[in-house]
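Exercise 3.2. Students should predict the tertiary structure of the chain below and write it as structure tokens, then compare their answer with the key that follows.

Predict this chain's 3D structure.
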Amino acid sequence: MADTLFPVVSSEPGGAPAPGTPRVQFAVRNQVEIHMSDLDGLVEDNHTVRVIWAYLLKADLAEMYDQIQAVEGGAGRPAIDPRILLALWMYAIADGIGSARKLAKLCGDHNAYRWICGGVSVNYHTLADFRSECEELIDDLLTTHLAALRMAGVLTLKRVAHDGLRVRASAGSGSFKRQETLLDYYTEAKEQVAALKQELHDDPAACDRRHTAARERAAREREERIAEALRHYPEVQAHKKKEKDKTRVSITDPDARKMKMPDGGFRPAYNVQLSVDTKTQLIVDAELIQSGSDAGQLLPAVERIEARHGCRPEEILADGGFMSGSDVETLQRAESVCTVYMPPPEHKDKNGKVLEPSANESVEVKAWRERMKQDETKTIYKERAATVECANAQMRNRGMQQFRVRGRSKARGVMLLFALVHNVLREVSLRVSRVAVASG
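Answer key:
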């Protein structure tokens, strides 16, 4: 008599297994299944994508909608809702995605991205073009969002930490050329564009006219990039301290500059300047500069904060790389004083002996030196690393390793988008913390 109520049948071909054979569940992939679900049910209620969408529902995107040419009662295909495109990029940044092609693929494969699209078809060309053209809008959204947080009492701007972050540009070191080479390239590009235009004119009905037109467009864009590089050449040469005849400008991204990176190497990059509120870790201002040095950038940072918020921070923290005596003097003499917390430099002779500060230093600089010796000041200064360095690390982790766009304007738009995403997600954390404190 069998030891089992029902006979054991193996799902593996070949009949019943021998006694003692392990029993496992084999994959069955030809079974027909029916799943009844909508897109909304595929995303959790507290999912990050819902946080971003909720923010965009309140954001003022009227400027984007005003640019849409397809209108009711008129001809033309309906445009994709700008809110969808912006939400896709914001969630992609939060998810560490920086490629338009990869984002377009996720829109068909990943539930969160499919939820944003809601059945709207999006291709990578549209995504890439949108990211390249939204600098001013993102700047306005960042300012409006910070203003709302100030009105709610979340942001006070009492103490701000500032730091610089060098980010690789979308250009190679080999793309930097001297003026003579740029002129030769420019002449060749103009001749190629003229030849391709003539080819199109002589035989416009040729079967490969689209290919020829694409070649002409590529040649024209190359000519424009080289012309832009030649336009930047005098400016770059003026900032070069020695060997001015060896000045080079990139023909790939003329706005990029070679900078010393954290690993000690020199590569084409931009310098991201971040100002972070120490109490909330919100990014209160962000700017993209073309200088590899942070020296002298403290005063411009305070002025940008004042322009964005209508007031200066009471205190600002920065590392020694921002040292500039004139900046300290100006900030301390201003009607609205901004107290500087920054380690003073040590002057040494050729033997390494530390020299005393110059007797000709201004009253403001001397007061700053004395202030930085106090234990209370040293405690305050520790907040710099715990705030702005944290924001830098989070932006790095989200993909701020290298810009995938070319040109300062486009790179700045991407940087501002990173800052906006950081603040939107940070607002959620602050709200949760305040609720926990209130209920505790």
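Discussion points: Residues 194 and 216 are 9 Å apart (CA to CA). The radius of gyration is 29 Å.
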